[in-house]
Amino acid sequence: MDKSNEKTTRAESSRAAEEDLLGAGESVSERVGNVFTGYTCGTMTRGVEHPGDIAEAASLSSIQLPPNDYPLHETISDSIIASGKLSKLQLEGVAYACQAHLTKLPGGDRSGFMIGDGAGVGKGRQIAGIVVDNFARGRKRHIWISSSHDLRRDAERDLRDLGCYVKVIDGVKELDKETKALGLSKTCAEGVLFLTYSTLVSKGGGEGKKNSVTTGKSKSRLEQAIEWFVGDTETPLNQKEQTADGCLIFDECHKAKNHSEALKSGSKVAACVIELQKRLVNARVVYCSATGVSEIGNMAYMARLGFWGAGTPFPDSQKFIDAMKHRGVGFLEMLAMEMKSSGKYVSRGLSFKAAEFRTVETKLNANQTASYDAAADFMDKLKACLMQALTETRQNGGQVWKAYWSMHQRLFKLLCVSAKVPEVVALSQAALANGECVVIGMQTTGESAEAWETQGAEKGVDGGGLFNPNYGEKKGTAQQFISTTRAMLRFFVENHFPTHVADVAAPGARNSGVTQPGDGDGDGYFDEQGVWVALDAGGGNGSFAGTLNSNPKDSTLRPHPTCVQAKEILLEMLESLDLPPNPLDELIDLLGGPSAVAEMTGRSKRVVRRNGVLLRENRSDLLTSKTADAFADSVDGVNVSEKISFQKGQKKVAVISDAASTGISLHARLGEANTSRRVHVTIELPWSADKAIQQLGRTHRSNQSSGPSYVMVSTNLGGEKRFAAAVARRLQSLGALTRGDRRAATGIDLSEGNLDSPLGRGALKKMYDALALRGAGRLDSGGTGLANDVLLANVLSHLPAKKSGEDADETADPSSPDASVYLHEEQTTPGAGVAKLHDELREAVVKTGLQVGLSPVGLSSESQVLWSATGAGAKDVGDVRRFLNRILGLPVRAQNLLFGYFTETLDKEVSVAKADGGYTEGVADLSGSNIRIESTETILKDPFGSGAELKKTLVSIDRGVSFQDSVEMLQKHEESTLIHSNGDTKDTTNPNPDSTLKSPESTQKNPKKNGSGFYRANRDMYGRTQVLLAFLKVGKKNTFTVTRPNTGSSINDLERDDLESKYVRIVDDKVHTDAKRWWDATYAMTENNCMHGDSCSTRNCAIGTRDTRCCIVSGAVVPSWGILEKTLERHGERFPKSDRGMRAARAVAEDGTKVVGIRYPEELLEEVREKLINEWAVRDDLLA
After folding, report:
1. What is the pLDDT of residue 907?
2. What's the whole-model pTM score?
């Protein structure tokens, strides 16, 4: 290369570096706008407004429902409408459902409709309206399937309120009773057959018939329901199935998730729901749930929405799911919008304007930390003994290890819950003192553990007993509640620890002295593959009521002395552990006992303190009188009784579990005796987002005197974020299909807690790689030696600072180094501190039993034994769920340090993704001033399905920020930061005006000291001083958002090191002089010119100009997504990194015009059009 070319190349590189420093490569910036907007029903001219403030996801609000001319007035009387028994909002849902049912899918099945409304809109009343309309038109048989038997009464009430007195048949059991010798009685010949999903999948007890001759074989409940639905005629069943056109309503339809067409596996509920739709092709299907789908993989049951089948690119549900599941949340948001635009979907919800949200972090005290660490140490010893015992008794241990890890997960989750009890009690007492009522949400009741302990006491088993008098010596000698965690551990050791060796001559002999019959107990867990598994006390499948048989009579087994002794030692060690009592029992006791606390859970028995004595009682004994109604005397009946006591104000505290999270209303309802504000405390985050949303909706409904105050309590344990991450992962997608915006599922933005994502999996792999390599090679290349080159100080910031004097932690291990030790070694010998950290974390990872590619080199002798038992594979390197499950079992220090390393690595991963355009935060508003819609034109019309048009809209935006606006931005940031540090629950920076949110992580120091403010570049560029405004991100210690005068808010964040190395903070007394002069100069110059100024030699250069143009593609985006995506990938190198991803965006023009779609390069649309024409022509040929 000659010198002139070399000089040119250097100049170009230098210019590119300067442009990159000044954000020249960025296009229109985005900001997360309002999650909700107020919803006004504009399609119904008759009716009264709905009581309560109703909101809709901002993204959906930009999409209009299609015209509706369904003659609902023919069937719904004027008096019903005038009285408001069906509000405008509810009439809209009924009308669009009935209109959708008039159309057929290309394959011939009748179209379905989805009501995705949240709490407070009245999904049940809308279903009743649909039934009334159809009944009036001559369709006399309908099936209504829901999750709980007690919802039948609500269904009956809703129908009666609309003047419809049709028979609501109480399940197929009533059909059995009403089936006479000559057929079905007249009372059940028409009406609504109300079923639960559990009934639908049962085998049933009806007598089978064939040509009117009894065969004697029992039919399934599914078959009975279909036979009733199609009518008792002489017409062959398969023919009647093709013509029966009543309503098939799937209320709480999320119960039908977890189905895989490819694997031919999944839940029985999903299989039955799919079978019903396949056979009843002409039925009017309604899907109804506030949590319709938790992720794209759970959509297989939505067969009537036209996503797959004839006339679509996908022959079946599995092909659709396989193609869509990797397309991210942006695709789901567009899907929800297109569903609404085609009239298949409504999704409104009670506004969270009156609700408050806050999170409270409770830190484990010294005793709790010591107890937790002791439990972790015991589990390590149990694992080591188990490994040895399995070898000695010649077992493969597959089922034992499944039980071990199941129990492991539940054990530490319960310890986390128990650690929060004091905080929850304090919050509850403060709320009661303030005249408020308290609702506490949890999942685990511990009934099975108590039942097993009682059974053990009755059988005289050592270690058994109803109460544990020795728990917590510091608590005195009074009786204590059963420790659920101790019961789980004892059950596992008693029933799963091998003590007998099989006779070599009888290799098929069993090494078990326990039988574990399943009794259908409700306790369970989502395993590491996300499948629900019912549990026994020890974490295995079955029940706690296993038959203990300590002296096996099988002659093929003989006791192994060493294993027998080891088991005894483990049981002794177990009894010495300081483990907490059942958190549910303890909560009820500390908050005043059963006379003050209304319990709405699924357990039938419990331990309570009465007159100072602990007693085990049946919950049904609470009922003042017994009735002939089996429902009233059941657990559901007790829950209803407890709910009445709470709503009347007789009890001021309620505790609810999953069993009471569907259908029950605990809000401050006007007209009820108890209208005090509800403080809804979540002590135990549910295993799934479905359950989380059901619980949150219990206390926030329409017609209430005040909105609830939501308090989510968590600990400072890193591993507990596993549960928040699991829910956050589902909430993102959930919002997309239930409210059209992933942040809108509950009004709470948990997206930053989403660890189980492609970025999370990538970060985890990189962390494991760094641990496997022990940082080798990274320092030589100028890196830090840590994964993603994160800073050592950032990782160590997750360690608690060592205290001295009176505040010193007596339980802390003095041999555990604090952050200063690592940093000193790193400073003295580069790489030494990183190596020390990696060695410690490698030991921790080995304890988790994960196969992540580690080698035994450098491990302690104890860890090498564990490593050899685990294996040297790498099957778990990308499994975030399993990682988060397993680290719960580490001691507190190791757990927080390892989790901190992972989150720091993930933060870097997210930063890179933002820079490359691969990160999205949902539908974002294009930011800027003077936004104008230049033009909108149709690219192509989809000839299939909805016939929607694919449109191109050009938007002109001035993205610049004036100095005055930048000063106001800084002032708002400072006010918000100070509010957080003063403990106020309001968050003035929260983009959702319908909610408030406080997080302890967001509590920051004085903003003037944390680095937020105006900065100038170290050197002048393009003949002037370059300035920017930087804010420390809420919840972060070293990450800043950046705003520039010409390009506005940056998509990319800036790390503290980069900021401080390239810029200098402008002191406060120079902001309104120097900073203003420099800011105004850039702002004025770039209005019509590029950022290079007069020195620019490039013709028509637009780099860094304020005024820019953005192209948004809207309309039929979903059927075009594949080609749009592939075309952009093919030409990605032509565009700035930030424009290489397909992100959903919304533009609101100055005149109020809105457009929502995906940002897409305009120059690629002609190629997209040609490819779409070719693909759709192929589809047309296939249909022909």
Report:
1. 84
2. 0.73
